[in-house]
Amino acid sequence: SLGQIKSDKQQPGGVIYSIKGPGVDEEPLGIFSIDKFSGKVFLNAMLDREENDRYRLRAFALDLGGVTLEDPTDLEIIVVDQNDNRPLFRQDVFTGHVVEGAEPGTCVMTVDATDADDPDTDNAALRYSILEQGTAGMFSINATTGEICTARSGLDRETMGVYNLTVQAADMSGDGLTTTAMAVIYLEDINDNPPEFTKEEFSMEVEEQATGVDVGKVFVHDKDLVGSPSWLAKYTILEGDPEGAFAIHTDPHTNDGVLSVVKPLDHEVRDRFELTVSVQNEQPLEPMAPASPRALATVQVRVRDVNEAPIFRENPRRISVLEGTPPSTPITTYTASDPDTHQIQTLTYALLYDPADWLQLDPHAGTVRTKRELLHPSAFLQGGWYIALVLARDDAEPPLSATGTLSIEILEVNDHAPQLQPSAGVLCGRPGRGGTLLLGATDDDRPPHGAPFHFQLSPQQPQLARNWSITRFNVTHAVLAVLAELPEGPYSLPLLLRDSGIPPQEQQQLLNVSVCHCGRDSTCQDGALAAASAGAGITLGALLIILGSSILLLALGAARVRGRRRALRKGLLERSRDDMRDNILNYDEQGGGEEDQDAYDINQLRHPEFFSARAKPPLRRDAPLSSGTPLAPRKLPNSPSDIEDFINEGLEAADNDPSVPPYDTALIYDYEGSGSVASPLSSIVSSLTDEDQDYDYLSEWGPRFRRLADLYG
C-alpha cells in the first residue's frame, strides 16, 4: 500500500473510508483504491511521471450510517522520477557551412537534444560528444552546449568538400542513456586556385574573309567550385592581334575560351597569326593562393585561302561624255581587280544594265564604247546622268562576281541655233505709233548654251537698218521697230539670231512682216487686210484683239451686195426665225468661202487616196509668206476608212514641219448647203473707202449695233 489514513473521531462500531479525485473516480480511472475499513491506499496501475507527476485526492471518513464524521482531507501522491527516457535530438541530420581555410575555433553549428525525465535530476543532465568524424579530427564539440567548431586549420574544399560527423547525447551527465545524430558540414569555396591552360600551345585555322565565326577553343582547368565566380574564367588576347581581328569569350557551361573572327582576314596579306592569350577568374584570387604556372598560352591561327569575288576599286565610276558622241567611241575602261593574287584567274566583263542600249563592252579588256549616238535629252537620263551596271566575273569554281556602277554625265553641246518664234507678224507702218513687233526665240540646247539670245538685222543687207531697228527686250525677246513710214504690204526681213553658247550658234532666218494702215490710235485700221497678208502667225498684234472684235462685227454687217443691200437685209431678218447658224462658220483660216468648197471637200477624209493621185499636195492656206510645202509628205494610213488615224497623222506631220507654224493641214468643215442668200465675204474688200458703204441698216439690228450705225452712218 501507499499509505493509510485514520480519522480522529473514530466511533464505536467502526468508520468507513473513501477517496475521490483523478486516478480514482476521475480520469485516469482506477489507478488508486482504498480499504474502507482500514483506510489503506493501494496502487492499482503503473505510474508515468512524464504523464502525471502528482495526484491530488480527497479522503472522506463516514460512520456506518453514512454520516460524515469530519471534513474531507487532501491527499497528494507525488510520482518520483526514474531515468526511463533516453535523450532525443531535435533532428536526425544537422547541416552547417564553413569556408575553406577557416581559422581554428570558427564555430559552424549547434546540435541540441531533449530528455523527458525530470530536468532537476541527473536523469535529464545531457552531455554531447563526437563519436566519428574521420581521421583528420578537424572539428570539436562543446559537451554542454553542443556547439561544433573547427579544431585545427587546413580545411580545403578541393581535398574534402563535406564532413559527416556522428554526434552523441547522453543523460546522467554522460553516464546514462544515449542517442546519436548526424552533423553534415559543407566547406564553402573561395578562389584559392587559379585557372590553368591544359597545354601551352593551341592550333586552329579559319577561312579568309569570314567574320563572326568561331575559330576554335582553348581549354583550362580550375579546381574551384564549378559554376562559381571562383571557377569562371576570363580570357584576354595580349599579343599578336594589332588590328583587333580576333575576339575571345568564355563558354559559361564548359569554361572554355572560344576564339572568333570579328574582322575579315586576307590570306594574301597575312596567312598566319600567333596570339598570346591569358586567363584569370572573374573573382580576384585570394592572397594566399599560389601563382599559376600556366596562366598564358600561345594560339597559332592559320588563314586558309579561298576564292574571293572581284572588286571594283572605283565604284561608282563617274565620267563625262559629250552629247552626240559618235558610235564606237571609247569613253572609259572600267575594270576590277581579283584579290586572289596567289591563284591564277581571268576576269571577264559584261553589261548588266544598259537601259538605252547605248554602250558596248569589251569582255576581256573592260573597254566601254558608245554603241550609238548619245542623245540629250532622253528618258533614260536622270539629271543629265546615264547609269549603267558592269558585271565582273572570275573563272573559279564556283565563279564569283562583282557589280560596278558606271555613271556617265552627258555634257550639253551647243549644237542648235535659236529659232525665231513666231516667224510672222503684223505692225503699223508709222514710227513710234504702234510700229513695233515683239520677237522671241527658242533653243533646244540646255543652259548655258541657250539664252540670252542676240537679235540683229542681217549684216549682209545693211540697207535694212534705214527702215528697221531691233532692241533687246529681255534675255529671250527683242522688239522690232519701224524707223520710217512704210507702205502697206508684206515684207521679208532676214534676221540673224545667235545664242550664248560656247561656241555660239547663229542662224539667219526670215521674218515675214505685214505692214498695215495705221488708224487714229496707232493700230491697224483694216484688220482683215492685215490678217490676210500676214498669214496665221501669232504676233504682237494679237494684243489688239478687242479692237479686232469690233472690226469683225463691222465686217459681218457689211457683207452684202451693193445693189441688193436693203432687200437682202430684209430677207436675212425675215429668215432669222430659221436656224441660220449653219450658214456662218468658224473656218480657223483666212480664205475660202461659199464658192470655195472644193478645196476642203469632206470626201478627202473619206477617200484619202485622192491625194496620191494628185501631182503634188494641195497648197496650205494657213502657211506664212515665203514658206514652202512640208519637207516630207504625209504618209497615208493603211485603212482609208480610218479617218481618225488619218487626221492624227496629218496633225503630227504639221507639228513636225519646221517651215510653217503648227496648224493642221486637214481641217473639217460643215457643209453650208446651196443657195445661201449671204454674199461672199470677199466683197467686203471690194471697196476700200467708207464713202461707198451704207451703214444705216445697222440701227435696225437692235441696240447692240446702233452704236456702229452712229459711228459709220
Helix content: under 10%
Mean pLDDT value = 78
Overall shape: elongated
Radius of gyration: 65 Å
CATH class of the domain at 196-304: Mainly Beta
Q: What is the CATH architecture term of the domain at 196-304?
A: Sandwich
Going across the biggest sheet, name each strand in turn: 8-15-14-11
CATH fold node name of the domain at 196-304: Immunoglobulin-like
Number of DSSP helical runs: 7
End-to-end Cα distance, whole Å, is 178 Å
The main pleated sheet reads as: 4 strands, mixed
- Which stretches are low in confidence, meaning pLDDT under 50 for 5 or more residues running? 527-637, 662-671, 673-689
CATH superfamily of the domain at 196-304: Cadherins
Tally of strands: 39
The fraction of residues in strands falls at 25-35%
Class of secondary structure makeup: mainly beta
Protein name: Cadherin-15
InterPro entries: Cadherin, Cadherin-like_dom, Cadherin-like_sf, Cadherin_CS, Cadherin_Y-type_LIR, Catenin-bd_sf
GO cellular component, one term: cell surface
Membrane topology: Single-pass type I membrane protein
Walkthrough of the structure:
- The chain is mainly beta and 713 residues long.
- Among the domains are: 3-78, Immunoglobulin-like (Sandwich); 88-188, Cadherins (Immunoglobulin-like, Sandwich), CATH 2.60.40.60; 196-304, Immunoglobulin-like, CATH 2.60.40; 311-411, Cadherins (Immunoglobulin-like); 419-516, Immunoglobulin-like (Sandwich).
- The protein has a 4-stranded mixed β-sheet with strand order 8-15-14-11, with no helix packed on it. A 4-stranded mixed β-sheet has the order 17-24-23-20, with no helix packed on it. The protein has a 4-stranded mixed β-sheet with strand order 25-31-30-27, with no helix packed on it.
- Strand 14 and strand 15 form a beta hairpin.
- The chain is elongated, with a radius of gyration of 65 Å.
- Its main location: membrane.
- It is a single-pass type I membrane protein.
- It comes from Pachyramphus minor.
- The chain crosses the membrane at residues 528-556.
